[in-house]
Amino acid sequence: MKIGVLALQGDFDAHRRRLEELGAEVVLVRKPEQLDEIDGLVIPGGESGTFLKLLGEAGFEKLRHFVRAKPTFGTCAGAILLASEVENPAQAGLGALNIRIRRNAYGRQIDSSIREGKFLAELKHHLNDASRDGSPLEMVFIRAPKIVQLGEGVEVLATEGDDPVAVRQGKAMAATFHPELSEDPRVHKAFLELVKDGENR
Known about the structure:
Layout: E1 2-6, H1 12-21, E2 25-29, E3 40-43, H2 48-69, E4 72-75, H3 77-82, E5 83-87, E6 97-102, E7 112-119, E8 135-142, E9 146-150, E10 155-160, E11 163-169, E12 172-175, H4 186-200
Parallel strand pairs: 1-2, 1-3, 3-4, 4-12, 5-6
Antiparallel strand pairs: 6-9, 7-8, 7-10, 10-11, 11-12
């Protein structure tokens, strides 16, 4: 299983380390043609507008085709890029997830914070009643966006308070926090399972 990490900006190296710990072969993607040789892609945090500039028009088009065809996981700025609708300010997106997302939604007061949320993704596999409301998950938020609306077909994988903070739809998955900065590997594991599912179909 070969996983690409978009290495234009942001903490792509932390994603690389986590994925390698989980047994994936990792390619740091810096050129659009590298998308042809990978089974799944992680788009890390950073600044979503900068990503668009660095990708350029041709790179953005290639990425748009990729996210429709193969599993893609976006964190923070990556989640913004995958959304079908972006506000504060409005911005072009890849449209892979039927969500509306608000950039820097929490304002300056929590530029960074570590909170505890609930991880729901494993509930499908373990349907005993004890875990039905999810298990605790440490979440690192850095100038985080907020998912303000979920469209049809979007599954919530994790929550913080009442807010959905990790979601999945089809082959696309997104988190508004930074799972690569905590010790818990379950969010990346869920993404690798998504890639494996795609290979088995």
